[in-house]
Design a protein that fits this description.
Elements: E1 7-9, E2 22-26, E3 36-42, E4 52-59, E5 61-68, E6 74-81, E7 86-95, E8 98-101, E9 107-111, E10 117-121
Antiparallel strand pairs: 1-2, 2-3, 3-4, 5-6, 6-7, 7-8, 7-9, 9-10
């Protein structure tokens, strides 16, 4: 966090237990394209118990996916914006106690003139 943070939340229930995980960012540390590093925390099981750090997502926007990783945690896709309407879609999967980029499914995309996303698999 910066010395003068502009805190924003994107809290979501990622494990289906009815309690939202804390997803927080300091907007003053985001870049000119709106890309930020979102920190993810799971609330403690009982009152007064500390929240557990689960990792971070890098992107301007986040999208929970239907697929699941360990501990029934939803996969999350982050959208990283570049200049000229280009973006990188990075999926994150919860494994071994934290969120990691699933780099087998990273896509490079660009916005078409009709607002569609045209994506290419980065493995090719």
């Amino acid at each position: 966090m910066s010395n003068a943070p502009k805190v924003d939340h994107a809290d979501r229930d990622l494990d289906g237990d009815g309690r939202a995980e804390i997803i927080v960012v300091d907007r003053s540390k985001c870049d000119g394209h709106g890309n930020c590093y979102w920190n993810v925390f799971k609330l403690g099981a009982s009152p007064g118990e500390c929240a557990r750090y689960l990792g971070n997502f890098a992107g301007a926007a986040l999208e929970p996916l239907a697929s699941k990783g360990d501990e029934n945690m939803s996969d999350v896709r982050a959208y990283w914006n570049f200049a000229s309407g280009r973006m990188l879609l990075q999926p994150y999967r919860f494994v071994r106690g934290g969120y990691l980029i699933d780099d087998g499914d990273v896509l490079q995309c660009k916005r078409a003139s009709d607002d569609r996303l045209e994506c290419a698999d980065t493995k090719r």
